Each structure stands twice: as C-alpha cells, then as structure tokens.
Fold these 2 entries.
Entry 1:
Amino acid sequence: MGLIEITKNISYLPASEDPLSSDVVFITKENKTYIFDVGANDEAAEMINGIANEKIVVISHFHEDHAANAERIKFDELYASKETIKHTHTGSVISDKIVFDDIIALTVPSSHAKGCVIIVCGDFAFLGDCAYAGFKHGKRLYNVYQLGQLIKLLEGLDVKYFGMSHYKNFIYERETVLTMLREQYAKRTAGCDFIEAIGRSR
C-alpha cells in the first residue's frame, strides 16, 4: 500500500481490514522518527523495522489493531498509557502528557477504550480511535461524561486538523470532527449515563 504524505515530515500507512490494522503515523525529524500506533499487519511491522534512525513509539490504546506489532518491532523508546502497557508488557507510562521536541502526547477521556492517548504536532492532532464509541451489550455507546470531557479537551487544542484512524480520508478538518461529536452529545437524555452512537462510529 505504501506511505501517504500529509506534510513534508508527516506521513502515514493507511489502515487495513484483513488483517484489521490501524493507520500508522510517521513524524520524521533530523535524527529521530516518531511513530504513532504500530498496527497489526506485516507491512506496518516491516516499515517500522526498516527505519534506521532513532525510533520513538507512542501507542494510542491497547486494542490489537493498534498495538499488536509492539512485539514484532524494534524501537528505542515506547510510550503508552498504564492500561495499554498491561497488554504490551513494554514501554513507559504516560500518566498525563509528555512533550518530545514539538510533539505532545497526552491522555484523553474516551468511551472507546480505557487509557487512550493522542499526539499533537503542529496543525495536526492524531486521535487514534478516541473519538469513537465503545461496545456495551452489543451496542455502540458513548459514556456521556467521557464524551463531554473529550469534546472540551479537543476544543482546547490549537490545531486545524484531526487524524481519525480507520476512516477513509484519515485527515479531517477540526470542526468536522467536533460537529460530529457535538451531534452525538446532543442525543444525551437526563438520568442516562450512555448515548447510543448515531451514524458511523467505528
């Protein structure tokens, strides 16, 4: 499939369906490559292992399509939430946020999975699956409180675009994503802790 360039120093390997594997983001600096998510397919593992310079990996959450290749790749440093590291058995914990060069990795509230992390670089925030609903009792559900907190956090980011893993175009304008989330949040009802997801929500 190959890399798709977003900017001169940011590119991504698109997600695949068979096997299910997330988008993998590569941010290239002079002597380092920052990698957000490692996917689960052979192409992602081979691409990561083929990078010669220093590799710093951040994993968005513990689901296999985003984290399975952690066992197959070589890296210099790996960061993730405490929950994710329970599954990868390697790496350093991001408890709030970490700053690398001009990249920020921070934990975010999410209905999709416990311990989600996003990264922010320039005009872009890469969200992994954090904006998607979770699954409970066979339904795609948002936790009302977590969704409200996520919207506030994303509204506070000084970026123009969000990267949404598994979506066809991957990069979307900030307001497009926030509008989708606000529409979900508007479906909340008094006394109910969950909102059933409307439209597409992974």
Entry 2:
Amino acid sequence: MAAGPHLIRLALFGSPVSRSLSPRIHSLFAAQTGLQVDYRAIECSTSGLQTKLRDLADTGGRGCNITVPLKFRASQLATRLSARARQAAAVNTLCFESQTEWFGDNTDGTGLIRDLRENLGLELAGRRIAILGAGGAAAGILFDLLQPAPAQLVLANRTPQRATELAQRFAVIGQVQAADIRNLQDFAPFDLIINATSAGHQQSLPPLSPGLFAPQAHCYDLNYGTAHHALADWCQEHGVRCHGGLGMLIEQAAESFRLWTGRQPDTSLVIEELTGALN
C-alpha cells in the first residue's frame, strides 16, 4: 500500500504471527470505516521488541498489537498503562501518543465481555464462573470479568500456587478464589466455565467432568479454529453449550481499532465472514 498523509500504519508483534487473523480483521475494519490502514504482522523476539517499536513509532506508526510471548515486555516498555493492563501486567495494544509516549492497554477482557454479552446474550452478574488456567490469558480477562459482579469467580490451575498468586494480585479489584484444577468439583456447579489453557493447541483437554456444569451452563474457549476442536467435541458429547474464542478475538481487535482511530467497527459483519471462512 502506498504511503500517504492519511495512511494509518499499524502492526502486530509476536512469535509466531504468520497465521494470525489480525491483518485480515483490521483490513475488514478499514474497508468498513473507509480508512486507509496498513497493518502488518511482524515476527519479533522479546529482546528485539523495543527496537521494533521505536522504528514503528519513529516512522509515523499509530500503534500496534502485541501477542505472545511479548505482552509482559510491552507492559514494561509502555510509558502509561490503563488500569486493566497494569493489573494484568500484560499489554496487547500500544497507542503511540508521540514518538516517546506510548499508552499500553489490554483489550482482551473487553473483547470477551462483549462477545459473551452482545453476541451470545449471556449475563454475568450473579453468575458462578470458573476460569481454567492461571497464565497470561487468564490475567488478561480477570479485570473485566470482575466488573459485572459475578456471584463467584474461581481460578483453577494445575499448579495451585500460580492460581493463588494471580487471585491475590486481583484481590483489590474483586474476590477471586484459587483452586487446584483437579479439585474444581468442590466449587461446582458453574454457570460458565472459561478455558484459558493452551491444551487445545496440543489437541488435548483440561480436566473436565459433566458435574462441573449447572443446568443450562455454557463453556467458553479462548481458543478458536483447530485449537478449539477438542473442547467443542467434548462439550457436544456431554450436552454442554460451547463457544469458541473467534468472537472475542474480533471484539478485542475492534477495541484496539477504536483506540487507534476513534472509529467503532461493526463486528457482527466480521464475525459472520470469518466464521464462514474458518468452517
């Protein structure tokens, strides 16, 4: 794309990024809003992130997305952080306010809440919720999940100490209970179970049993595409309503796009198009 005075230069940094859907998502947002956007996926190591960010900012870049394994490093490089990014110690969106002033945010939680509420019609207030996993994916959604005041929020992990540490970090925001994922039955049943583990990338499952789910419960997988298949198959076999994370991916991208451009794209059109393309 030829450079011009109205061209908005954006990027995605991470490893690996070659199969990322983000460039396609943002090209659809750009076409929808009539903006000229150059959004590129750039392979990057933790040690090289600062240099690549400076290069983008120095050459007129508007901002960028950050994906694994760079979100913590990005939180260190930002000169200003949103409350949710500070609490998560993870940044997935940087806005270059100047060449040296970089605002860091984490739009993952917003994306999840929008997908659950607006696209799936699920209410979270007063619900019993469990998150499987206590890594960066869980940290990125906890702040926003606590805002609707669920009746219970349990963070379950194979290493209980990690769940305890993360729950304690968010104690100033709201009550989070830590659990050994193998003993999650002690806290059941749940209205919503969110899979924030990476098990699906190995075509495997986190520990699950039908007894964890209340009647009419839902299971939400932060994974999408082939990484979602194993959990989707298990849920279908056990009669549990299951949702993949494509909607969250698109909704969090829309929040990043809004931060960079001031425009709010219509995500429903993009979800429909990409759902059809991935099926």
